[in-house]
Amino acid sequence: MKLISKRPKKGFTLVELLVVIAIIAVLAGLSSPAVLNALKNAKKVATKQTCVEVVRGIEQYYADIGRLPNAPAAPTATADSAPFAINDTTSIPSFLLELTKDNSRGFNYLNMKQAKSSTSEGAQYDETSGDLTNVTDSWGNPLQIIFDNNYDNEIKIPVGIKAAATTLRGVNIVCYSIGADGTNTTPKDSADNVLSWE
User: Fold this and answer.
1) If I label 110, which of 47, 75, 99, 125 is the partner at 20 to 30 A Cα–Cα?
2) Which strand ranges, in their side-by-side order, compose the sheet holding 144-147?
3) Backbone phi, then psi, for 177, in 5-degree steps?
4) Entry pTM
């Protein structure tokens, strides 16, 4: 006569494992849009913080030196500067150098964290000279700046940066990012722009 053991077998059946895997897949599918949205919002917050740091540094420079970087002391321009990329050395050749070391006080007004790569958010420095060469948003695009070149304490924001033209009063500088799409040629493109003044 055979003895039959009534001890239960150890382990899971194949059906039980498949049910658990299916539940995990459903939960992952439900949570992934929320995670992606949180990452997108985190990039916007980090970019806005960088824009605000740039504006504060230039405002401090203006308070100490009495003029905007690479701008004449007296208002001679008739309009605000056109939007320009912070790394555009053809428009304003020594703009970043003047903010970081080549000024009458020898003070660094843009003491910012270094970007991990050329496509990540933060300050980028020349490897040989150590000079600041660019400040980028979370998508690797150079930040954009508009100066109040005529010193009338207002800046006209053109269409493309926002959906409609706007005038900001009481400011000498604005900084913004062209966002994840890397463009702001039409009002539709401006939906993802990150603005220092909002």
Assistant:
1) 75
2) 84-85, 144-147, 173-177, 194-195
3) -115, 145
4) 0.75
Establish if 3 belongs to a structural domain.
no
Render each residue's pLDDT in the chain as its tens digit; 198 residues.
566 666 666 778 888 889 999 999 988 888 778 888 888 889 899 899 999 999 999 899 989 888 888 765 556 666 777 777 776 656 554 678 788 877 888 888 888 888 877 777 888 887 888 788 888 888 888 888 888 888 888 888 876 777 677 888 998 888 888 888 887 777 677 778 888 888
Classify residue 31: in a domain, yes or no.
Answer: yes
Identity (one letter) of the amino acid at 40? K
Cβ proximity of 63 and 105 under 8 Å: no
Q: What domain range includes position 46?
A: 15-195
Helix (H) or strand (E) holding 43: helix 14-65
Residues 6+ apart with CB under 8 A from 179: 137, 139, 141, 189, 190, 191, 192, 193, 194
Q: Are 139 and 179 in contact (CB under 8 A)?
A: yes
